């Protein structure tokens, strides 16, 4: 019997078409997100699921799946999936690491430069017909070259972000659960707690996954230390930051600005954020290059193909299942 795969959205490239040569595909064709109830209904007889980071794959969905062998997330982050429960049920969970590292790290740099040099504001000013010629004090910003940047989470993307900044003569600080002698050596980086970063750095850039430990990792006690200096860059997950406290800090001047690709309750964006000039807000496009999104599709499809052939998929998140 041909195995059945549920895919919650059409993906860039031809990876799904290739998979369709071999398997029976149930592809959600709508532009709107596939409703939770619809996933729950259609998953019952499926052997594999390819889903988006915006699909909440909880106990309820996993319980209604009778034959499911693999949940292949079309993302590197997998906080949208109840991995613990999937593991209990013996279902593989996979993600798409590495292929999106460059795209996401370069988006973090785009945010650093846009907020520091006030690109969004300046562009809006020009478009609204206000540019009357060069002025000595028009849109004075913060110089990025020679500044100090704190990186929280020096995994694949955090490290790539540091590497890409080599030409900017950055004074690097970093924080991870453990010290990283290789990072200290390569970037002459200083190990600092997040709190110290907020009192010492010009920028703080977040690159940790969202877990129980990193939920609201950054909050009021951090912003209070910043006294108007720090620009916060978040391309990780919205809930790593206490968004309400961040907004307060942007209004009371403790934070100089913010570049945000992610939000606590996506796609909802608090009205107060939309009114601020010193923020750049992006609709979660960290990995959004044609090349990367096609590679992510290939990776997710490959994980499914390998799992359905009875082997351990290469990008396994719940590694304990690979040991059995
Ligand atoms: P990664 O290689 O696993 O790196 C994450 C790093 O975070 C690890 O090196 C880990 O280092 C550190 N970390 C984990 N828990 C921590 C904690 N409690 N405190 C401090 N550090 C902690 O993952 P990645 O590929 O770089 O991706 C990182 C995240 O970026 C993803 O999980 C995803 O949420 C987000 N992302 C967003 C976009 C976007 O579109 N905006 C795109 C891709 C990824 P230690 O183990 O040494 O602490
Ligand atoms: C995007 O946010 C990802 O985790 O891949
Ligand atoms: C600016 O355009 C300059 O030439 O300094």
Main attributes of the structure:
324 residues; alpha/beta; Rossmann fold; 2 domains; 5-stranded parallel sheet; 14 helices; binds NADP nicotinamide-adenine-dinucleotide phosphate; binds glyoxylic acid
Q: Any overview of this molecule?
A:
The protein is an alpha/beta fold and 324 residues long. The protein folds into two domains: 130 residues, Rossmann fold (3-Layer(aba) Sandwich); 181 residues, 3-Layer(aba) Sandwich (Rossmann fold). It is built from 14 helices and twelve strands. The strands form two sheets. The chain has a seven-stranded parallel β-sheet, with helices on both faces. A five-stranded parallel β-sheet has the order 2-1-3-4-5. Helix 5 packs across helix 7. The site of NADP nicotinamide-adenine-dinucleotide phosphate has 29 residues, from helix 7. The site of one glyoxylic acid has 7 residues, from loops.
